[in-house]
Amino acid sequence: MEKFFKFGERGSSAGQELRAGLTTFLAMAYIIAVNPSLLAAAGVPMNAAVTSTCVGAGIMTIFMGLFSNRPLACASGMGINAVVAFTLAAINGADWQVSMAVIFVEGCAILVLVLCGLREAIMDAIPVSLRHAISVGLGIFIAMIGLADGGIIVANESTMVAFGDVTSPKFLVGLISIVATVILYAMNVKGSILIGIIIAVLCGIPLGVTQMPTGIVSALDFSSFGAPFMVDSTGTVAVVRVLTTPILLVFAFSLMMSDFFDTMGTAMAVAKQGEFLNEDGTVENIREILIADSAAAAIGGLVGASSITTFVESASGAADGGRTGLSSVFTGIFFIIAAFFAPVISIVSSAATCGALVIVGFLMMTDVVDIDWTDLLEGFPSFMVIAGIPLTYSISNGIGMGFIAYVIVALVTGRGKKVKPLMWVATAAFLVYFLLS
């Protein structure tokens, strides 16, 4: 094991990697409760969503550890699972199998681009400011979903959105979730997000928000596995419907763009903590990391877990001493074990995950300082992305608005040459998408 993982060479040990793996699991285990609740809204059976979320994360995290030998963990990505639940479901007539087929196609496309060496070229074509803006926009979007789940904000015909009823049990559980998570996070408690959810679940019992489980352990539910190749409500194989429907292909493209940005930023963040970021800003073993991440996206759609991607919370494990892929193997094992406790996990209400979504949204806001707001070409398109994602309740819409704004501002300010060819292609694709919408 030492020869394969080289933890001695990297100043680590099996025990240290185990601790780091557990730290990463605790830091990102909130996804076990959050992802199924979102996927259930899209029509995926709850127990199946729990199984696919845990098993998918476990398998791909172990694969990442073995293939790249770096301390990165994978699970269903926040933001994209919201697209599955609230955007794709509305477009495809609530056929969740079709939504998963979109994710599957997107993942396969990214994998092909990585294997052909084109992923880095596409990354280079997108302005850095827009990459940061997408992360910030997703953060606000995720926090908005969390606040709505917790009853903190509600729909209002007069003002579009309003403050919730402070006396309602749902509001109280949501508030407890936020307060507990923030306090624990401020105290640097390991697994603060997961503990915050647990506290909110327990407080929800006397308030009638948390429903007691019918059991503790249950058999795994693999009914969502192979979703892209299932027949949808129209009698068409889901993946065939995606490949023959332009608007769904555009969605696959936009999700692919989102996956690009998240993974590159995450890899750099973890590499800095794990001491495999070179002085010139390049990440060691980046090709292996990108291949594993791209394969994870496709596997996520295949098993019905939404897009599985590399989690920035992996940095917590790297900061806690993770230096090799062994820590990822341990994290993956913890995820697979968690899959057997679906009844317990299913009692977690959406209100109880409010704090997790809000704190994750906060963490994603850090990229806002890396945008040059004094430059119209950098600032205005970034603003359109950041405002567009939450205000249109669509990640794709926000990204498209930012891309189009960037091209327009570049042209009118005489900087059209800054727009790279692939950026033109992406902008044209978004124009088609908006026209089709």
Would you write up a description of this structure?
This protein is mainly alpha-helical. It has 20 helices and 4 strands. A hairpin with a 3-residue loop joins strand 2 (153-156) and strand 3 (160-163).
Strand content: under 5%
Number of helices: 20
Helix percentage: 55-70%
Number of domains: 1
Whole-number radius of gyration? 21 Å
Uncertain runs:
none
Mean pLDDT: 86
> Separation of termini?
53 Å
Question: How many strands in all?
Answer: 4
**Looking across the biggest beta sheet, what order are the strands in?**
1-4
User: Structural class of the helix and strand makeup?
Assistant: mainly alpha
Main sheet attributes: strand count, strand direction, barrel closure: 2 strands, antiparallel
Tertiary shape: globular
Order of helices and strands: HHHHEHHHHEEHHHHHEHHHHHHH
GO molecular function, one term: purine nucleobase transmembrane transporter activity
Subcellular location: Endomembrane system
Family: Belongs to the nucleobase:cation symporter-2 (NCS2) (TC 2.A.40) family. Azg-like subfamily.
Protein name: Uracil permease
Key attributes of the depicted protein:
437 residues; mainly alpha; two-stranded antiparallel ribbon; two-stranded antiparallel sheet; globular; Azg-like
